[in-house]
Amino acid sequence: MSERITLGSVAGLPEGRGIRVDYGEHRVAVFRVGDSVYAIGDRCSHAEASLAEGELFDLDVECPRHGSEFNLETGKPASFPATKPVPVYDVEVEGDEAFLVIEDEEATQ
Predict the structure, then answer these.
(1) What is the C-alpha separation between 35 and 81, in angstroms, rounded?
(2) How many helices (H) and strands (E) does the chain have?
(3) Model pTM?
């Protein structure tokens, strides 16, 4: 089972920078790049800095603390010091509305 959280209109999301969305235990960084919306875990896997506050380079976000870059599609780090990926979340777009999809952890176990 999954939960859908309304993010609002795609056009209303900031272009090229992140916003943080908290839902239960999930802390998510959401980014709009053109007409696409991406969502990854907000905590850098190296030092737990907020990735929503990082600078965006194409489809990579740079951690504001130590400079590791994470891919928005895979969550994998592209540079040190981070070596572990961050979670990737599905985003569904219907018309102009974007929805963050949170999977129920019990259903995935």
Answers:
(1) 31
(2) 1, 9
(3) 0.91
Residue with tokens 């990926």: 85
CATH for 56 = 2.102.10.10
Question: In which residue are the tokens 């985003």 written?
Answer: 91
Give me the DSSP letters along 43-72.
B-TTT--BGGGSEEETTEEE-TTT--EEET
> How far is the CA of 107 from the CAs of 2, 37, 70, in angstroms?
8, 25, 27
Number of domains in the chain: 1
In tens, the pLDDT along 52-85 reads 999 999 999 999 999 999 999 999 999 999 999 9
Structural domain range at position 60: 14-89
Structure tokens at 8: 């609002």
CB-based contact 43:49 (threshold 8 Å)? yes
Whats the size of the chain, residue-wise?
A: 109
Residue type, 23: Y
